[in-house]
Amino acid sequence: MQISAFQGTLADRKTALPVGGEIIRGMTMDRRTKICIWTIMLGMGNFLAYVLIYTYIWGEAVNGRVVSDSTGQLSYYLQSGRQVSQAAFIYSGVHSISIWPTVAAIMLAMLSLAKERIVFSMRQSILHGRTFISVFAVVIVLTTTILTIHFTREFVDHFEPVGCGGIPAATSPVQDNNDKP
Questions:
Q1: Per the CB 3.0–4.6 Å rule, which of 36, 101, 161, 164 could disulfide with 109?
Q2: Comparing C-alpha atoms, which of 72, 69, 77, 74 is closest to residue 93?
Q3: What is the distance between the alpha carbons of residues 96 and 154, in angstroms, rounded to a whole number?
Q4: Tens digits of per-residue pLDDT, 51-69?
Q5: Distance (Å, rounded) from C-alpha 98 to C-alpha 88?
Q6: Of the candidates 20, 41, 50, which has an alpha carbon nearest to the alpha carbon of residue 110?
Q7: Whole-structure pTM over 0.85, yes or no?
Q8: How is the chain split into domains, by residue range?
């Protein structure tokens, strides 16, 4: 049924969705769709913030290092070699770690939105649509969980003390030529 011109009250117009240029009365987004769209939008916002901050501070901390000088003073370096404050280092590390759960949330939301189309298009294949969705969701969750744990361990390892002095294990970003035999 195509409606060439929308005829109805303002309340009807608020509950109608455009479909192919036409407005169909009574079709509204369900709660799951709204949640998925918001998840995608917030996730993309997090990713955009990560890119902008990464560009502004010239790097990220997960692959950076913490260096202790002879007095025990700690210096924080991003993977680019740029020295930053402890707060910037910790923020960068936490934000880098948060990207993996963000990727999972976006992919699962997109998978959820495409579920009906996938089920319909795979109804006569060897692997049925619902099975494919379940397997793919498990792969997404496992992969991003493993990467989140790996990034978290890498970042936390920067702060682990070594020996009885409690000085974190680190190497200086600049090699000292006096160390050569």
A1: 36
A2: 77
A3: 11
A4: 898 888 777 887 788 887 7
A5: 15
A6: 41
A7: no
A8: 10-174
